[in-house]
Amino acid sequence: MKSLLHSLVLLCLLAPVAAVQADQLRVEDPWVRAGPPTARVMAGYMTLYNSGAREREIVRVTSPAFARVELHLSRIEDGMARMIPQEALRVPAGGRLELTPGGYHLMLFDPLAPLQPGDPVELSLHDAAGQVLNVRATVRLPGGRDADHTHHHHD
């Protein structure tokens, strides 16, 4: 009986944690496109998953590796590619938002040091409710390939 009571108390203590985690935003595959050493602007990509029952809005992103980060959308208008600044990135309830080349993405301005493929980049995603999700992205070659991803030809 004492063991059952102990288990019930433990279950009650863990239940709120599970409820909070179910409403959290999750990020998969965050990466920053590598550029030349003199690049003043880079782009960041990832997939955001929202397991909660309400839409989540990312209203700001910061990084200690860059002077400024903006939210953008690439779009073709009148045959011309345009980048349109966004006030927020909206992740639907129970859905996802992909940040990809040619779509929504992060514009990372003025790197504080040159970044090479494989380097980590810390990003802080701030939502409209004031919550912050810290993410570690990796610098990758264009196309999202890792620095150590090479093709070897065997004869």
Would you kindly provide a written description of the structure presented here, covering whatever features stand out?
There is one protein chain. By secondary structure, the chain is mainly beta. The chain has one domain (23-138): PCu(A)C copper chaperone (Immunoglobulin-like, Sandwich). It is 14% helix and 49% strand. The protein has one helix and ten strands, in the order H-E-E-E-E-E-E-E-E-E-E. It has one helix spanning 2-22; strands at residues 25-33, 41-50, 56-62, 66-77, 80-85, 89-91, 96-99, 104-111, 120-127, 132-140. Strands 1, 2, 3, 4, 5, 6, 7, 8, 9 and 10 form a ten-stranded mixed β-sheet that branches. Pfam families: PCuAC. Keywords: Signal.
What's the number of structural domains? 1
Helical residue percent band: 10-25%
Q: Compute the separation of the termini in Å.
A: 70 Å
Number of strands: 10
Strand content: over 45%
Task: Please report the first level of CATH classification, the CATH class.
Answer: Mainly Beta
Second-tier CATH architecture: Sandwich
State the secondary-structure class: mainly beta
Strand/helix succession: HEEEEEEEEEE
Signal peptide: 1-22
Organism: Thiohalobacter thiocyanaticus
Protein name: Copper chaperone PCu(A)C
InterPro entries: LpqE-like, Lxx211020-like, PCuAC_sf
